[in-house]
Amino acid sequence: MKLVLESLKKAAIPAVVAAATTLGLSAPAMAEWSPKKPVELIIMAGAGGGADQIARLLQGLIETKKLSPRPIIPINKAGGSGAEALRYIQDKKGDDHTILVTLNSFYTTPVIQKGIGVDVSNFTPIGRMAVDNFLLWVNSEMTDITDLDSYVAAVKAAGTGWKVGGTGTGQEDSILTAMMEKEFGYDVTYIPFPGGGTVAKNLVGKHIDSTVNNPAEQSEFFRAGNTKPLVQFTAERLPAYPDVPTANELGVNMEYYMQRSINGPPGMSAEAQEWYINLFEQLFNSEEWQKFCVEDGLACDTYLSGDALGQYHQDQIALHKELIESVGASAITGE
Amino acid sequence: MTVRTAEICMAILLALCSIALMFKSAELKIGWVPERGPGSGAWPFWLSAGMLLTCLATIYRWFKGVTPESKNLEPFMTKDTILVVGVSAGSILFLLAATHFVGIYIALFFFLLFYLRFIGHHSWLLTIVMVIVVPIIVFCLFEWALKIPLPKAITEEWFYPIYDLMYSY
Amino acid sequence: MEEILIHLGGGLAQAMEPLNFTMIILGCMLGLLIGAMPGLGSVNGVAILLPITFLVPPTAAIIFLAAIYYGAMYGGAISSITLGIPGASTAVATVFDGRPLAQAGHADRALTAAAVASFIGGTISVVLFTLFAPPLAAFALRFGPAEEFALMLLAFATFIGLGGDDIPKTVFSILIGLVLATVGLDIISGQPRLIFGDIDGFLHGINFLVLAIGIYGIGEMLWTLETTQGKVTVHKVKMSVSQMKRNLGDVKQYIGTTSLGSVLGYFVGTLPAAGATPASLMSYGLAKTFSKDPESFGKGNIAGVAAPEAANNAASTGSMLPMITLGIPGSPTTAILLGGMIIWGLRPGPLLFTENPEFVWGLIGSLYIANLATVIINIAFIPLFVKVLTCPFTILAPIIYILCVVGGYAPTQTMHDVWLMLLFGIVGYLLRKLNYPVAPAVLAIVLGPLAERSLRQSLLSSQGELSIFVTRPISATCIVIALALVFYPVYKKFSNKRAADMPAASG
């Protein structure tokens, strides 16, 4: 913003500066297209979850920084693990005023719920804002479980009596749980709860035995000494958890991430896509966003946008299809 | 139609609905999944079965003539009732249908015009004030203050100048 | 104890700072207004104003949002009483007696009772919050799925007496509410259920508000039209200072039930996942069960307005506890508040109390002030709310219809829900004509999902063993109380009958 202002000052047209700052139009490339009505920011999850927080933070930043001439309005469409949101976006073909903030159900829901008839590879990729990580957690009172080996031994001893909590069948953590079941050859009972916070509470209250959770949902209980992480499913150790080994280090080839990205409906005009890519790039590079990423344990190193994000989506869709096929959709739904 | 006839018709209709719901639930697992408890269709299935039983009880009580409704031979809806309730329900139906085509604001205009002038028999002055003021209040409250975009259908582009005015502070 | 008082003093002082105090007053008024509109609730207010709070310090921001939340709890009663449409699920029980009172021309009495009861509920709960937050947070942790299910049984048991006298029809109403609640995604199996005709709108399930606004908004209006045959009905209400005093004096009639309801509401509110709706229903049910005159409930008993209002306010304060200490939202509104805290860089969790005492105690202090401010603002506005009822019916009716349509659209922003609402309204009206009670269906759609989910979670963790509900002490206790509540009315009837028979026998 500052840079832009300086370049405009060189042009020495104060009136333009005033107009540009109030309207928030900041680069020449963007002057061609800008929203003509309020933009709907569809959230494919319920109020209060991770995607919801991100959407509302972005909305707030856009508003306080005056980056858009029209407001961005977050709308939750959580129905059917995001199926409702995906169909809604699909039906908005060619609309320049609707965008979607995703989690991994963006990839998994069309695979698991075959009937919904949505192909997300047609959606218009805008920008990837963050990547979230997963760790395996147990209650810290389980003193005989100290690492992955003792965990696997304990689970095997308990059989299906071992209770793993999660945020819902078909969600990221249920896929990771199914991956672990296949890898280590055990069977656990997966119990879904509404939201990661509730899972964490049930772990602390010992109503479940373990969970695969994002750092953000467990960090406070970890700091309070209620829960402990055993292994992280990342390529490298997270800065916040330097003492926790990754699965790869232990010789188990298991990595899993969750992306948070912004996408438009199929057939969004190139000018609009360009405008949104720039808008979210400004947000991505903002101090507030980077601070939020650090606090929330998200990885926000590179901003993927446009075709690069499209390619990333293609890879992820292929990966999720393979994952779901290899563990079997029934291993995830349990019925 | 008497209340007595209406009672049995409604009970049969609800019983049929219950059966339909049972079939719909049976598309999912309705049995007991070992070590997991009831399947995902079990809860709606057995509840619908319960609905069917209560409808059968109502039908049985109708034959026995136990309920006051089964003995009531007064008309279920008088002509006046059908008129006054039907016109109201119909006007809401119109409001919703029109919203799909011309957006809520135009629909509101005609709905209020009809209701105030032709049902309420209010003066033209009051009618005209209301048909103009109410949509404006709805717009200011929902779109502007609460940021809830309402459906506008084909009138979408009419609002672009208004947005220009609203947001170019 | 001394430490608590010092913290509390600090919190109160913080709440009285000019910025924070302005936030409280503004928040309460906004909340009251938003809460009074059918279909809109604190969740709308909080979500819209969240971005604005980036401009002020976190403590001022949470105080503002909490004040909106608080104000909306008071406001919910206003549309329940004046229009007969519950603005939020927490205000359903308020309709049962509030609406008959308003129709009998006592809207001002009902509104005053709602405000005073809310104040009592708010005060008792915030005192309990101040004194017993940490032990209760520890207790809340012991509440697993089995305990939640037992609590739901308890909630169902308390409103057993709410139905009409036709038992099959009452049971039908409960069951259809429970079935409608299962529409949408089943989180246990991850499969969509009862998606009629593969219509997208059913994927998000049937929102409670769609049924409540349909039945109480549109259905009730059609019913009123029929009974008055479209003739203009004007509720004459005279407001005067002496009348106001008399209304406030009513407090003697319901102080007992509200105090009980407040304590109950607070405890239920602190349990994650339960929230204010079951609390208000349980409070209403208890007030009726233990009343000397249970027959008058549902026909305009002032205690029937006061009991649920006290409990829902108490529960909303209570639900702040799991939010702060466990990071678990008890309602959509607290979910957004929680998101707000995270955005501001405050991590809710067991350490928040010790690491950010200023924030927590500022919030607690503001609850005291907000409570007092809202009751004063609310009572001052009662004459205005009552004025609404003097509007000619043919002007009021279309406005209510418009509020219903827009209110039905707002939560999910789909026309599908508005059509569904109209359908429920018409069917509800026809069913009501045939003496089917509609209230049980509305309550069932709120409690149904909680009951089913906790039941299935419990059975998953016990691997299908039903004994889990009786071998766990808290859950067993709840079930015993639930059974006692079901059989208490039977026992009372029986013993009354014997008492009535006795003199006859001896004479």
Low-confidence stretches of chain B: none
Global mean pLDDT of chain C: 85
The topology string of helices and strands of chain C comes to HHHHHHHHEEHHHHHHHHHHHHHH
Q: Sheet bearing the most strands of chain C, described?
A: 2 strands, antiparallel
Termini Cα gap of chain C: 61 Å
Helix content of chain C: over 70%
Question: What's the number of structural domains of chain B?
Answer: 2
- List the strand order in the largest sheet of chain C: 1-2
Question: What would you say this structure looks like, in words?
Answer:
The complex is a heterotrimer of chains A (335), B (169) and C (507). Chain A folds into 2 domains: 33-132 and 257-326, D-Maltodextrin-Binding Protein, domain 2 (3-Layer(aba) Sandwich); 135-256, D-Maltodextrin-Binding Protein, domain 2 (3-Layer(aba) Sandwich). Chain A is 44% helix and 16% strand. Chain A is built from 13 helices and 11 strands. Chain A has helices at residues 2-11, 14-23, 50-64, 83-91, 105-112, 148-158, 172-184, 196-204, 215-223, 270-284, 287-296, 306-327, 329-333, and strands at residues 39-43, 72-76, 98-101, 124-132, 135-139, 163-166, 189-192, 210-213, 227-232, 258-264, 304-305. Chain A has a 6-stranded mixed sheet. In chain A, helix 3 links the parallel strand 1 (39-43) and strand 2. In chain A, helix 5 crosses helix 12 (306-327). The longest helix of chain A is centred in the last third of the chain and has 22 residues, at 306-327. Chain A is globular and about 65 Å long. By secondary structure, chain B is mostly helical. Chain B folds into 2 domains: 3-71, no CATH class; 79-167, no CATH class. In chain B, 72% of the residues lie in helices and 2% in strands. Chain B starts with a helix and ends with a helix. The model of chain B has no long low-confidence stretch (mean pLDDT 90). Chain C is an all-alpha fold and 507 residues long. In chain C, helix 4 (58-82) packs antiparallel against helix 15 and helix 9 (208-228) packs antiparallel against helix 18. The longest helix of chain C has 35 residues, at 107-141. Chains in contact: A-B, A-C, B-C. At the B-C interface, helix 1, strand 2, helix 2, helix 4 and helix 5 of B face helix 8, helix 9, helix 18, helix 19 and helix 20 of C.
